[in-house]
Specification:
- The complex is a heterodimer.
- Chain A contains six helices and twelve strands.
- The longest helix of chain A has 13 residues.
- Chain A is globular, with a radius of gyration of 17 Å.
- The model of chain A has no long low-confidence stretch (mean pLDDT 97).
- Chain B is of the alpha+beta class.
- Chain B has one domain.
- Chain B contains three helices and eleven strands, in the order E-E-E-E-E-H-E-E-H-H-E-E-E-E.
- Chain B has a six-stranded antiparallel beta sheet.
- In chain B, a hairpin with a 2-residue loop joins strand 4 and strand 5.
- The longest helix of chain B has 12 residues.
- The chains are: A alpha+beta, B alpha+beta.
Chain lengths: 238, 215
């Protein structure tokens, strides 16, 4: 976890969307300000966005169906987009996906801008598409997302259940950028959140400069696969 | 769930054997039944589906597992698109479980998973790319998203681990899907030689299509 000075901090309002090119050598800390937040996120290599976060490669390289400290987010090109260098939650969901307009309407009813102003009901899929459009990307560039702060349990028979109370106020997760990474974050509720009320939560963001991963970096050494992933990432910058 | 099909291969309007290591791209029309047969046993058929009228609307692993509340695909599973379309329904399955979290192998992911010197070994995402390039119509790498691995067994444990277990398929087992809209099917018959899931012996699979059976 880093303790270098914060260069920038900002709050992503409930249901809102944020994007940024996280530079190699910096880290993004996301903080659950009130407890029960969800931060849906997708990741791209900013220099060549057709290289992007790959859920299956991330899961199978590390034999995981959850994310926490020591794990990394893989691109489809065998490189590491971000490493998880700090986490007070212990479980972030990589499989549950994101909400869409029909799911939000069915669960929470209609709430349009005309009547509700900026409290209108947002959904993650449309929010991702709009934000991707700002970077010249489109619906064909959508990929499976990570849901930070949320947990989905998988039973022995494969059934899914949302784990309420996974993240508390003040919990945070820190992502160190290993490449120049376009990250898009949206704070709508998790699609499996059983709460019948539309009540997305805010997420705090802060960015710091951090040292390059050392030879004994815990994410590098967590598995032989990740050592090779770091090697391939470092070769990309040679 | 084990469900056998009543359809007879001799009534199929199309059949084709896909050798291991080859792509196959084909349109399946609404109402047609589409079967994939594991001819040699425990062979991964890495499969992508697209809405044939809008390729941006494509199979989504996350939407499919969330809508059915289960990570395993079997008879009864509706294959969902990113746009909320039901692309196909699995109507018969003699294997019992198929994976959609393990993805497809690539030269680059093989370098991470096995060894950097594995780069040269043939991989599914190269077959997907070759299939899409030959199909044309503007399809390219960004259209390759999370796929289905028919006949593969990739359990998740309650502790959040992803495991690769011995296969539960065998020679002659099949999965059959009904197209709920016109779809484009893209298969890479997996050439993976680094993983015991196929006993290090990639084998052919057969695809068959029947017109709307009404039987």
């Amino acid at each position: 976890m880093s303790d270098t000075p914060i260069l920038w901090d900002e709050t992503v309002q409930p249901g809102a969307t944020w994007s940024h090119v996280l530079k190699r050598g910096t880290a993004l800390r996301m903080t659950d300000l009130e407890g029960g937040a969800n931060a849906a996120a997708i990741f791209y290599n900013f220099e060549c966005p057709v290289e992007r976060y790959n859920m299956p490669d991330t899961l199978k390289a590390q034999h995981i169906a959850r994310l926490t400290t020591g794990f990394v987010l893989y691109s489809d090109m065998g490189r590491i987009l971000c490493s998880i260098t700090g986490d007070t939650v212990g479980w972030h969901d990589p499989i549950g996906g994101c909400s869409n307009v029909s799911l939000v309407a069915a669960k929470y009813g209609e709430a349009r801008y005309q009547d509700c102003r900026n409290d209108y009901h947002k959904n993650t899929l449309d929010s991702f598409k709009i934000e991707l459009g700002k970077w010249g990307l489109g619906p064909r560039d959508l990929v499976p997302n990570v849901n930070f702060f949320s947990r989905v349990d998988v039973a022995d028979d494969g059934s899914l259940s949302f784990h309420t109370g996974n993240s508390r106020a003040g919990d945070f997760v820190e992502l160190r950028a290993e490449m120049n990474v376009l990250v898009i974050v949206n704070t709508c509720q998790h699609p499996l959140d059983p709460n019948p009320a539309y009540s997305p939560k805010p997420v705090g963001l802060s960015i710091r400069r951090v040292p390059s991963p050392a030879a004994d970096d815990p994410c590098r050494l967590s598995r032989a696969e990740n050592e090779r992933g770091f090697t391939l990432t470092e070769r990309y910058f040679l | 769930m084990i469900v056998a099909s009543q359809l007879d291969p001799k009534d199929a309007v199309y059949s084709h054997v896909i050798p291991a290591g080859e792509p196959w791209v084909h349109e399946v029309r609404q109402g047609q039944h589409f079967r994939i047969v594991d001819l040699g046993g425990n062979q991964a058929a890495d499969t992508l589906f697209y809405n044939a009228h809008d390729y941006a609307d494509r199979y989504s692993a996350q939407d499919t597992i969330r809508e059915q509340g289960n990570i395993y695909l079997t008879a009864g599973t509706k294959l969902m698109s990113t746009g909320g379309t039901v692309l196909l329904t699995i109507v018969a399955d003699t294997c019992g479980r198929h994976d959609t979290l393990g993805g497809a192998c690539a030269n680059e992911s093989n370098m991470v998973r096995y060894a950097i010197e594995k780069r040269h070994m043939h991989a599914c995402r190269s077959s997907f790319l070759r299939g899409l390039i030959e199909w044309g119509r503007g399809m390219e790498k960004r259209d390759i998203t999370s796929n289905i691995n028919f006949f593969m067994n990739v359990p998740v444990t309650p502790e959040g681990k992803l495991t690769f277990e011995d296969g539960i398929s065998e020679a002659g087992k099949y999965v059959e899907l009904r197209a709920e809209t016109d779809v484009l099917a893209v298969i890479s018959n997996c050439p993976q030689l680094n993983n015991p899931c196929n006993a290090y012996n990639p084998t052919p699979v057969e695809v068959l299509i029947w017109d709307s059976p009404g039987v």
